[in-house]
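Researcher: Batch entry, complex prediction.
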Amino acid sequence: MASRVTDETVFDAMLAVIAEQGYERAATRAIADAAGINEATLFRRFGSKENLLRQAVRRNFAGFALDLDAPGDDVAADLLTIVTYYSRLYETRGGVVLTLMREAKFSPEVAAVLTEPEALLERVDAVILHHQRRGALVTEPPRHTFFALVGPVMMRSIARRVDQRATQTPVDPEAVVRRFLHGHRPDTGE
Amino acid sequence: MASRVTDETVFDAMLAVIAEQGYERAATRAIADAAGINEATLFRRFGSKENLLRQAVRRNFAGFALDLDAPGDDVAADLLTIVTYYSRLYETRGGVVLTLMREAKFSPEVAAVLTEPEALLERVDAVILHHQRRGALVTEPPRHTFFALVGPVMMRSIARRVDQRATQTPVDPEAVVRRFLHGHRPDTGE
DNA sequence: CGCTGATGCAAGCGACCACTTGCATCGGCT
DNA sequence: AGCCGATGCAAGTGGTCGCTTGCATCAGCG
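Model: Structure tokens for the complex:
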């Protein structure tokens, strides 16, 4: 009874519009149109643009569960879990994620919304620390390790959206982990 | 005669405002204030916001020359040149570069301005290809190599501006290249 | 000294946008 | 059937912003 057009539809519409316009440019009118509802309805249902974003982010990234609770003896396996998660995220929602990350800098509105998904990073930190202590990874601030691991994935996602000539090939998480662990020299014993 | 406030001052002001506000939010009024001139003067001198951006970018990134014309036998040395260049760029102008890259996606105005600095990437491609053919690098699309190399640097620059808890430590280009070539396993012979 | 051209100032125009409001409509519920 | 809440529609409000304009000022140059 809530509505003929579900909230999920509106969330998807919003994320889609943000992906191609950015948050600020994403006019509530355009979001409403994309969702197939009236702009007034959108405000009656969600109150404000910020609140709509918050709900959309929450509902969308809650689904992306990262199974990281029990880091084991296998570095490669754990890193693969991480890379796979982020490459899937960037593959499906890359436009939104990057836009929001950037826009958070100057929009407290956006920043406030992003605090929730950021909690995920702490769990990643823990896993990396675990393997550093085991001696399976170079010791350095875990965020550095994280950036080195995920940076390539993320840059390809950025490039796909900026550069025409960039590869459209999706990232191969196994290759990323292998290169990360063994380096980019050919035939180094892999 | 030209003016008491130089064009360079205005360019710097614009890039500074963009770095913290983004291009769209960077109000011409705010730029003019930051430069210490009147908004009307700004338009009389530069015509439009887009043209101002173009001149600012041109003048600012022309200075960043990349010395890459003669790739040699030393992969590490050539990669170091590349990483050093980009880490310097992100260090000093990271806020602007990333913002513009992202905003280019939905603003043809910005995209048009960025075509010039993009030419640089082709020279980087050539160097990477050269070393791939020499057998010093894994063979893959050169842009992939580039992303894997520079991704970590760039992500740290992004993080510095988004995450409070991120490292403020500047990137060490030598370490980046070493890890890139040899991987993140400790003591792999290096 | 008188001209010229670049500047500052203040006001305004037109466009866009988040958000509101009043009213008619329509669907499900009792 | 009759009610009620959610919707669509259209118009509007107030704010921001790119850009313009008219006028006064001020510096350099002959």
